[in-house]
Amino acid sequence: MFSSNSKRKRKESTYLRYYCTSTTTGNEYSEFDEPSLNISDQENWKINAYYRILDAIITSMKTRFSSESLRLASSVDNTMCSNNPKIMVFRPSLSEFKNFSSYIEFMESRGAHKAGVAKIIPPSEWIPRKKSYDEDDIMSLKIPNPIYQDVKGDKGIYQQFRRNQKMMTVRKFKKLSETEFYKTPDHKDNGDIEKIYWDNIVCHTPIYGADVTGSVTDQDVKAWNMNKLDTILDVMHDTTIEGVNTPYLYFGMWKSTFAWHTEDMDLYSLNYVHVGYPKTWYAIPPKHGKKFEKLIREIYPDELSSCPAYVRHKTIILSPAILKKHSIPFNTITQKPGEFMVTFPFGYHAGFNQGYNIAEATNFATPRWVEYGKKTNYCRCFGEPIIFNMEIFLQRIQLDKSPLLLKGNDIGLHPKCDGSGKKRDFERLPVCKNLYYRSTIEEL
Questions:
Q1: Helical H runs in 333-384?
Q2: 150: helix, coil or strand?
């Protein structure tokens, strides 16, 4: 067998018509990297034998790839990697890119949602902004509450504590991010910068310009414009929830972090890096979300006893080594400038910025999300949580269940429940159940 510490040269991904497969070993390496974490013989076999064999088959077939052979290859691949679905990368043509909802549906038909996140590389013809990102309309923008991110903990288990600072302009933030104290350290590649991040996570408190209302996408951009995605979330056109059905801007610097979380109401999200350094993402497949929540309860029992939805505080940071130690499947991917990331319902994700960048993000929904929205949990520790009146979605998507919902009878299992019906499957839902139904009835 292959040694778990043997070096390997990463083979370039092979594109399967619309997307390429990427590694699922829990880390993403460049061709010069040595794995930073030990991996099992089974995983090593997949990396060094199975993936190479599959790539060779695909390479020899790609000149005559039919939709049937694509489905066959995908089926074989997904069967071999069913415990940890790989993050898919899509490269749509301009015509495919024009209809946002249709393309998300296509991605899910290929199983993209199973990994929790997916990457989309837009066609070269798509230009979100014609002017420079250093123009005054961006540089003069005000970041109302820049956040100092203090991280405490050790051995891979941390918590992030945020301190709001005085308002600053983007110009000042960018200049600060390029100073000796805050700038990105010298590094060879993505694997190297990831190691530096985890080795220094409690050092050198970064600043994050997060949750800034606005958009830097040109108004005349039609496709994938976060100001007008045209999804079922648009039925809330009379209600504006900043950052949920409108875009937020994020100004990152080296080591600024987004802690482990799912989206409000377990929605989808769309994130685009306009310019600057990449983001490093970690993602847990939704089918392993409950296993991750169980680990959270074990590590943070006091916090969870005070707030059952404590993970929504967005303070939990667990390293890849901790996830691996507790057999939590996950994937890592790098989002470069000019690339989109989509997160799917109940897909836990976290990550960090490799340096100064400008990103734009918002939430959206599809009919598949409705069942998640009905079963989500909430946190009231910081005032009123974001709660939707699900009745308006049921009237369009699940009209037959609308009367049951109003009576509090449409409870059922969470979509990612194991289906056993055991009591513990419902224990994370009481806050959701009570708050949701009360909110629904009060708003009607």
A1: 370-375
A2: strand
